[in-house]
Design brief:
The protein is of the alpha/beta class. It has one domain: 3-Layer(aba) Sandwich (Rossmann fold), CATH 3.40.50. It is 35% helix and 13% strand. It starts with a strand and ends in a 5-residue tail after the last strand.
Length: 185
């Protein structure tokens, strides 16, 4: 069973701004290009789950126009991490002390007061486990943080305690990666 992890297209927000769970739109042309590339790749009648944020829903909508044979659902578990009071601020304007508190307790600290990495891992693991139980090839249209969490789940990692455990790599905007479910994952 295969899981495609698709990242939304370039959001319409200045570079360097923390926007996690903020519901910002994505560039329409870049979204259409991503949908077109994805449409030719996906097998018939695959299930597509999308984050509820508009930058992901737009990609799902564009894909639906190209591939009406696919099954579409929205899933709030695929939303990016909520950075609370830091949402909408430039990353370089967030006090260094806030980053230090987060790094000291990377898994448990609610950076910005809303959600911790452990919270994100738990909700992504819930979607992961459900997808695995269904034994259907599936596409998640989602965010970099969710994709990073899923890559850890694919390795059997369900808890992250330290910042250096968190993956740095994620697909570019509008890109994707594929994971293969095995009996161990």
């Amino acid at each position: 069973m295969k899981l495609w992890l698709v990242r939304h297209a370039q959001p319409l927000i200045p570079s360097g701004v923390c926007y996690g769970a903020t519901d910002v739109a994505a560039d329409e042309q870049a979204t259409q290009q991503a949908a077109t590339a994805l449409a030719v790749l996906l097998p018939q009648r695959i299930q597509v789950l999308s984050s509820t944020l508009q930058r992901c829903e737009l990609l799902a909508q564009c894909l639906r126009e190209l591939r009406p044979d696919l099954t579409y659902k929205v899933d709030a578990r695929l939303v990016e991490m909520d950075f609370g009071c830091w949402e909408g601020l430039r990353w370089d304007h967030i006090p260094q002390a806030a980053f230090e508190r987060w790094t000291a307790d990377f898994g448990g600290h609610r950076f910005g007061g809303k959600e911790s990495v452990s919270d994100v891992m738990q909700r992504v693991a819930s979607a992961w486990d459900e997808t695995h139980r269904l034994r259907l090839d599936t596409v998640w249209i989602t965010h970099a943080g969710v994709i990073r969490a899923a890559s850890l789940l694919a390795q059997g990692v369900r808890h992250v305690a330290q910042a250096d455990q968190w993956p740095r790599e994620a697909p570019a905007f509008g890109g994707w990666c594929e994971l293969q479910f095995t009996e161990q994952t």
